[in-house]
Amino acid sequence: MRVQSKKPGKQRKALYNVKNNLRSAALNCALDESLRQQVGIRRLPLRKDDRVRVTSGEFKDIEGKVLKLNKNKRTITVEECVNEKKDGSSIYLPIAISRVRIVKLAEKKPDPWRQKIMDRRAKIWKEVTEVTGPKKAKQIEKETGVE
Asked: CA 67, 61, 95, 98: dihedral to nearest 10 degrees?
């Protein structure tokens, strides 16, 4: 049995030392309400060229395309989130993945791996909601970790 600590220091240490195969799970991002209804799932792994909306912070309510993902720091750079330096040049500021919502999926390259995830999660969500109802389904989702 694995024991999880509630101590913040141990939580941070676990995030910093996470293995690469588990690190990609931390790149899951919540979908916007309209996209959530359309696709039938709550979260998806972020990809380059997805359109996102920033939900909090300095750039709140700004929509833009994802230019770059940093797996180690769990941050992204968004096309519209730019800061000007004193010399006049501009720099993209990193934004935490938890502060954005996916508004539109990337259309350039259809990703079979991502489509497989979407199909699997949508199927599970549909089965659970038919049997238990939407409120109980959310509780089961939290317990099992399937999103």
From this structure: -110
